[in-house]
């Protein structure tokens, strides 16, 4: 496929937001061949006629956002429904979902169960206009675990590698090892394993531990051999601590962690990806979005404790990363995670979670999530100052003026044309 030409553009009159430093300063930024070439304070340099000059009029120019917990293939909150749907339907839904994420300013996302190499390739080749997609394939789950979305009366393992669905059911270290190798064979950027019960799975308890120690070790060994990492779904301190001790690099959710968990996060330099907005939306709209009754009953268990866990992890200096984890029609609330976190964290720290911290987790440090020279020109133009008011990013339809990925304009708000 022919790649579009990448213009050379000089942005002037900008408030350059550096999330690493937590500063916003007046200045200019030059984009060449899809990368950030130079930047500096006013006045802007003189450039030739071949360079497009864009005066931002004081708007904020900042790195594109990163969401490290998305499920664009999840067309319903009933994750078991995917097993009975056409792969082409799921792909079409995912294409729209990813485009919506891009329009909200997310230029890189990490799919942590459901997306695959084909969807990532479609984005890379421009068949789908969406954020850069870092995928892990299917999540690995024991029978009856969080990746087993069968109801109690459904027989068979319910999952097949070639069919839609978020999970693969495995039992024993040999099956987990083989499944891990299969995901890595397709180019997975990480592996996901279920370490505890979850909300969306119909037959397990939130407070259960899942995957035996031998099973977890097998997956960690395969990831490390491939220079990849393992992320684990876990809520309780018992499940989180077990995973961290066995080499799991990142924990998704972690709503029920305690001080012992925080000590292990710090000891292992591990990452935590809270996903608070999804519980709020599941409580509000889960029933209408297809969440089964047995799953709706679990929401309150994790909803109340999520902010407390985030506050404790933030105060201790744990590596925190932005995630949303929304399903089906609730994905339109993705950006509201910023406002929720802003009730507990300073704006600068919330921004780091969605930029530099996320980039480090994804192995893209210096490439995305930064205005550093040589980084990819993944940029968003924002009306307002997110450092002064993080809720600016919670209303992208109103505040995000332009989105660039690799130096190309991917979205421009109609009233900014």
From TrEMBL:
Name the Pfam families on file. Answer: Amidohydro_1
Family annotation (CDD domains)? Met_dep_hydrolase_A
Q: Which SUPFAM superfamilies match?
A: Composite domain of metallo-dependent hydrolases, Metallo-dependent hydrolases
Query: What residue stretches are annotated with the Amidohydrolase-related domain?
Result: 60-404
Protein name per its UniProtKB record: Amidohydrolase family protein
| Taxonomic placement | Bacteria, Bacillati, Actinomycetota, Actinomycetes, Streptosporangiales
């Amino acid at each position: 496929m022919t790649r579009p030409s990448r213009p050379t553009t000089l942005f002037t009159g900008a408030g350059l937001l550096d999330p690493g430093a937590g500063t916003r300063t007046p200045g200019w930024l030059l984009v060449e061949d899809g990368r950030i070439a130079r930047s500096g304070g006013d006045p802007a340099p003189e450039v030739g006629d071949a360079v497009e000059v864009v005066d931002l009029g004081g708007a904020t120019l900042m790195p594109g956002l990163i969401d490290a917990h998305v499920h664009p293939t999840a067309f319903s909150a009933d994750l078991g429904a995917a097993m009975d749907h056409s792969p082409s339907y799921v792909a079409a839904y995912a294409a729209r979902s990813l485009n919506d994420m891009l329009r909200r300013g997310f230029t890189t996302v990490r799919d942590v169960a459901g997306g695959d190499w084909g969807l990532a390739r479609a984005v890379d080749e421009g068949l789908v206009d969406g954020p850069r997609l870092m995928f892990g394939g299917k999540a690995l789950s024991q029978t009856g675990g969080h990746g087993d979305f069968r109801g109690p009366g459904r027989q068979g393992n319910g999952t097949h590698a070639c069919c839609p669905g978020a999970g693969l059911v495995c039992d024993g270290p040999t099956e987990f090892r083989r499944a891990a190798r299969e995901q890595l064979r397709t180019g997975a950027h990480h592996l996901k394993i279920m370490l505890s019960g979850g909300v969306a799975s119909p037959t397990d308890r939130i407070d259960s531990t899942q995957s035996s120690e031998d099973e977890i070790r097998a997956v960690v060994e395969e990831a490390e051999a491939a220079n990849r990492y393992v992320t684990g779904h876990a809520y309780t301190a018992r499940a989180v601590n077990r995973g961290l001790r066995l080499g799991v690099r990142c924990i998704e959710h972690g709503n029920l962690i305690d001080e012992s968990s925080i000590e292990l996060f710090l000891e292992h330099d591990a990452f935590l990806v809270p996903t608070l907005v999804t519980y709020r939306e599941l409580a509000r709209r889960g029933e209408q979005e297809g969440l089964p009754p047995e799953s709706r009953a679990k929401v309150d268990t994790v909803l109340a404790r999520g902010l407390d866990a985030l506050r404790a992890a933030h105060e201790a200096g744990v590596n925190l990363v932005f995630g949303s984890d929304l399903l089906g029609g609730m994905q339109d609330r993705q950006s509201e995670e910023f406002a929720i976190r802003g009730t507990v964290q300073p704006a600068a720290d919330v921004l780091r979670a969605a930029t530099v911290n996320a980039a480090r987790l994804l192995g893209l440090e210096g490439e995305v999530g930064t205005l550093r020279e040589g980084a990819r020109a993944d940029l968003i133009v924002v009306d307002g100052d997110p450092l002064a008011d993080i809720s600016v990013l919670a209303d992208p339809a109103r505040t995000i003026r332009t989105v660039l990925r690799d130096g190309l304009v991917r979205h421009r708000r109609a009233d900014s044309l």
